[in-house]
Write a structure and sequence with these properties.
globular, alpha/beta, 400 residues, ten-stranded mixed beta sheet, PUA domain-like
C-alpha cells in the first residue's frame, strides 16, 4: 500500500507554476549558493531578507509581500499560532544604527503604511497587498507555506497591532516594530490569481473569498484550527530551538543547588505572562501545603476588574525529566472552590498526568519549558547573556 502524504511536497523544478497550498513544503535546490533558494523560484521576490516585495516597498506600488521567518532568532521571536491564526512578526530594524523607518530594505516603513491603511477605510484597504507567510522547513533550504495574511487582528485595538518596541544591543538603543497579522481561511492560493495581482488591484478573477471579505468589509475570516487532543504532547511543551533549549538548561542549572529558589522565579514568570495586575505571595518552603505561591488574577475592565485566586506549584526539573501524576496531584488536591492552579516546570508534563488534568476538567494552567523560553523572549530576555543576568539580579542563591 502506498504511503499517504499528509502535506504536499513540491519539487524545486516545479516551483515556478505551483499554487500556494497550506502547510505544503517547497523544496530547495541542490546548489550550494543562493540559487537554491526556493522562494526566488516560487515567487519573483528575490532571495534575501525576511521582507520580500513584488515591486517597490511602498503601498500602492507592490503587488504582494512575502514574510519569511527562520523562527530561530532569540532576540526577535516571530511566532505563528496555528490555533488562532495570529502571526507575530518583527520588522527589519534588528541592529542599532538606523531609525525605525530608515531600514535598508524599507520593511518597517512599509509596515507603517500598511497598518495606517488598515485603520483608514475600504478604499485604503484596496491598496494593501496580500501577505504570504513562509517558515523555514525541516531540511536544508526547504520552506513551508503557512498561509495568506492580512494586517491586524479581530478585537485588537489599533494601538496594539503595530507596536514600536525598544531594544538595547552593544550599549545602543534602537526601535523595531512588532506586527500582528491574521492568517485568513484559504487552503489554496491559486497561481492564476497571483498572476493577475497588480499594485492596488487584488480582487480579480480567482480572488479567495476570505481576502475579498477583508478588503471590502474589513472582516477577518481567520484560519483557526482546534487541536485534535486536549493536551500538548512532549514535543509541543519543549523548547522549539537550540537557543531556547540552552536558555532552559541555564535556568535549571542556576537553581539546581537551591531548587526552592525556583519557586519565586516560577511565580515571576507567571506574572510576566499573565495580565497586568496579577499578584502573588510566596508560601513558606517548609509549610506550603502543596502550593509554592498564591495570588490573584484580574478579569474584566482595568478600571473595575474582579480577582480570581490561584495557587501555584513549581518544579525545577531537567528537560528530560517528566512531571508525573503525583507531582500535579499535589497541586490539584489543594485548589479550593473558585480557584485555579498554575503549574510551572523547566521540563514537561508527562502524557498521563496532562491527559488526566484535561479529561477531568481540573482548572490548571501548564507553563512548561517551551513556554518559559517564550516568556523570556517576549520580555527581551531571549539571549543566554541577558537571561543569566536577569536570574542573578532577581533571584540570588547565595546563602539561600
Amino acid at each position: 500500500m502506498q504511503k499517504r502524504t499528509i502535506y504536499p511536497v513540491v519539487p524545486f523544478d516545479s516551483l515556478g507554476g505551483a499554487d500556494l497550498v497550506l502547510d505544503a513544503t517547497y523544496k530547495g535546490g541542490a546548489q550550494k549558493n543562493l540559487g537554491a533558494d526556493p522562494l526566488a523560484k516560487l515567487l519573483p521576490v528575490g532571495n534575501q531578507g525576511g521582507f520580500r516585495f513584488a515591486g517597490p516597498p511602498r503601498l500602492g506600488a507592490c503587488s504582494y509581500v512575502v514574510l519569511f521567518s527562520s523562527g530561530v532568532d532569540p532576540d526577535w521571536p516571530d511566532t505563528i499560532d496555528l490555533q488562532t491564526g495570529r502571526v507575530c512578526y518583527y520588522g527589519d530594524n534588528k541592529e542599532p544604527g538606523c531609525r525605525l523607518h530608515e531600514t535598508k530594505r524599507g520593511g518597517n516603513e512599509f509596515l507603517r503604511q500598511m497598518f495606517e491603511a488598515l485603520h483608514a477605510n475600504a478604499a485604503a484597504r484596496q491598496l494593501v497587498p496580500p501577505v504570504f507567510v513562509f517558515q523555514k522547513g525541516p531540511m536544508g533550504r526547504d520552506i513551508v507555506f503557512r498561509g495568506m495574511a492580512a494586517p491586524g487582528a479581530e478585537a485588537l485595538m489599533p494601538m496594539d497591532d503595530l507596536v514600536a518596541v525598544w531594544k538595547t544591543k552593544r550599549g545602543s538603543r534602537f526601535q523595531n516594530y512588532r506586527a500582528t497579522l491574521t492568517l485568513l481561511d484559504c487552503e489554496t492560493v491559486p497561481r492564476r490569481w497571483m498572476s493577475t495581482l497588480r499594485p492596488g488591484a487584488s480582487l480579480g478573477e480567482g480572488c479567495p473569498d476570505a481576502w475579498r471579505l477583508w478588503v471590502e468589509r474589513g472582516v477577518y475570516h481567520a484560519l483557526e484550527s482546534e487541536p485534535t487532543i486536549s493536551y500538548r504532547p512532549k514535543k509541543q511543551q519543549l523548547p522549539r530551538t537550540e537557543s531556547d533549549r540552552r536558555l532552559i538548561q541555564a535556568t535549571h542549572a542556576y537553581f539546581r543547588s537551591r531548587p526552592h529558589r525556583f519557586e519565586e522565579c516560577a511565580a515571576k514568570l507567571w506574572q510576566m505572562a499573565a495580565p497586568p495586575g496579577t499578584t502573588y505571595d510566596l508560601t513558606r518552603p517548609t509549610r506550603d501545603g502543596g502550593r509554592d505561591a498564591i495570588g490573584t488574577f484580574p478579569i474584566g475592565p482595568l478600571s473595575d476588574p474582579i480577582r480570581i485566586d490561584f495557587a501555584l506549584e513549581a518544579k525545577c526539573y531537567a528537560l528530560d525529566n517528566a512531571v508525573g501524576v503525583a507531582d500535579v496531584a499535589r497541586l490539584i488536591s489543594r485548589i479550593r472552590h473558585r480557584q485555579f492552579g498554575v503549574f510551572v516546570t523547566t521540563s514537561f508534563v508527562g502524557e498521563q498526568a496532562y491527559e488526566e488534568i484535561r479529561q477531568d476538567g481540573h482548572p490548571v494552567v501548564i507553563i512548561s519549558s517551551g513556554d518559559i523560553a517564550e516568556i523570556l523572549r517576549n520580555r527581551q530576555l531571549g539571549s543566554l547573556e541577558t537571561a543569566e543576568a536577569w536570574l542573578r539580579q532577581q533571584f540570588s542563591i547565595e546563602g539561600a
